[in-house]
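Before a computer can learn anything about folding, someone has to put a protein's shape into writing. The outcome of that step, for a single protein, is printed below:
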Amino acid sequence: MLCGVPDLSVPLLDFEAAWSSARQVDGWLTEAQARMLYDSARAVAPGRVVEIGSHLGRSTIMLAASGAAVTAVDPFPGDWRYGRSDTEQRLRSHLAGAGVDTRVDVRVATSRTTRADWSEPVRLVYVDGKHDMWSCLDDLRWSRFLRVGDVVLVHDAFSSLGVTSAVLCDAAITDRHRYAGRTGSMARFEISRPALRDRLRVLRELPWFVRNLVVKVLLRLHLRPIARLLGHRDTADPY
């Protein structure tokens, strides 16, 4: 497979400059999560980072600003509830505005289709694609291109029923992904054989996941004051 080759001669941005651009882009990524993305990508730069699900580019900017070569995979379906017919164009505009567009190879395709023809080493995978269990489990298969010690980051790992189900299923059967903690709903997995304690650490996140589900229900019932009692101050679902 001939992969797009970003221009890595473009100077990278420090975290503050990158976040200043990224925070202006609509999306569901906290500053602490942006820091996790940036630091994780910086640690493997100029190696290849694969992002599954780019939307408008908030996370893509943080990954590319690190100095890594980024492949952003998103089919940009027009019927997706957060998408529009011009989502791809808006993504590219945001990348250009942040000065990182030459570092990003945008693939307008599904994760599975892109992975089927992939042959290059990857140093970091960020999963934020479709949130049903089967799609997330399929996206986690990108880890086969990583080496021991590399990282997989999964957004909404403990705030989406489908993604959480995938994470629990993977934790039960995997011999490759070791759970290393979370920042908000973003979970970090390292490529390493997990011990029993690593699998149990995933289960210990379930109370926080249940809290997030309760918050979602409260928001849909327009009971934001009660959601605030649970520590949720945002108008959006927990992320």
